[in-house]
Amino acid sequence: MGNIKKVLILSAGLALMFGRYPVSWFLSSRRGRRTPLRRPPVERHFINCPDGNVFYAEIDGPEHAQPIVFLHGLGASIEQWPFQIAYFKDQYRVVLVDLPGHGRAPKPVDLSIDRLASGLAEVIGHLGLKNPVLYGHSMGSMVIMSYCIRNDHDVKAVVLQHGSFTDPLKTCQYPMVMQLAKLPLIVPFLHFVKRNSLVFRVNGWLCYLSGLSLFLYRYLFFTGEQSAYQLRLVSKILARTAPEVLAEGLLQCFKFNVRKDLPKIAIPALVLGAGHDRVIRSWANRIIASNIPAGRFKQVGAGHQSLLEVPDQVNGAIGDFLNHLSPTLPLSK
């Protein structure tokens, strides 16, 4: 009986520490493409903003090529772009940015979308980027929309992938349910997370290591065609992000609404939606494209993490968009 108990304890310990591997294999497709390995970046920068926020940036690609600034979403980091780096780094100056409190950037002072947009201006100025293409995913595209409503004169074009023009609870899969739950349940819970971040941080790591969180993220972000590594990667990035940052970021996103201001974005815009995105439904992306004068909508397959799950579709759409930009537009010098 004693030996059986020891075996059970050992098995439970192994499941707690390494359960993410069999879970990711079970939830993923073997057809998922092998994720490219990243080489060390050419440059690294920490950019200090007047409001106290600090952004982190890595740069790769030819020095004088057209710059593309990659801005991830809430709970993500520059680690989410391996396929895009591999695709664009030979022809473009690839600038990867970590938002405050994400990746290597220290904890934020202010996560409001407007403050992050002001910080993006600091990043562009600090790095000396001329007429960059801005590419945002999810909340990153919301930051870029806010930035371009005020500053699109110094931007060549934008790519807005799976972002919302308003409170994301209004554009997710079950908007009526989420709106009903927002004030009585969701907002109080997020404030509770901020007050008890250590508990949620430990719980987040245990759920990642054991594989429990992978069930949720497979449903939220993918359709099943991702590789096991990609599912673990997204889960690990989220586990690394402080719970109070995730909670505050969501609270700030709830205040976002730029629908009336979208016509002020006068530059070319490619707006990407995903047919199976449960986080931001593709109809929201269609609305964004239809309200930007030079907006173009393109739907890709997969879910919210289509940039990992169907990178050929995503990169191909962006590559075609960039190749067909008017030659009269200013190029990077």
UniProtKB/TrEMBL annotation:
InterPro entries: AB_hydrolase_1 (IPR000073), AB_hydrolase_fold (IPR029058), AB_hydrolase_sf (IPR050266). GO terms for biological process: acylglycerol catabolic process. One of its GO terms (molecular function) is monoacylglycerol lipase activity. Signal peptide: none annotated. It comes from the Bacteria. The keyword Nucleotide-binding does not apply. Keywords: Hydrolase. Coiled coil: none annotated. GO terms for cellular component: membrane. The keyword Hydrolase applies. This is Alpha/beta fold hydrolase. The lineage of its organism: Bacteria, Pseudomonadati, Bacteroidota, Sphingobacteriia, Sphingobacteriales.
